[in-house]
Amino acid sequence: MGFADRLIFSTPTGEEPLTVAREMVADVACPQCGGGVARYPIAYYTGPRIVKKCQQCFHLLELRRPLPEENWPPFRPATRDWAASAAERASVPPRSGKAQDDGGL
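Given the sequence above, the corresponding structure tokens read:
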């Protein structure tokens, strides 16, 4: 799969329902109910994730970030895996040895 395949996509026609394939995991049973376990991608509140869940009681067995070769989400931005700059980080430690300016507040 090339780099452009992640950025360029066709518009869905609306004739086919959008579905996600759930792969059944062999030799794994749910510890809660003993049911079958499937692996599939989801949209999670902290970003895209891959899960393994029981298909009977929906017990969560695994939740992780997708690997690049899993291509999830299929239309993610090109800069998704880039490191954040200092200005984009949630907190930057203060410079040592210098007084901090409060901006006149």
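The radius of gyration is 21 Å. Try to locate this feature in the token string yourself.
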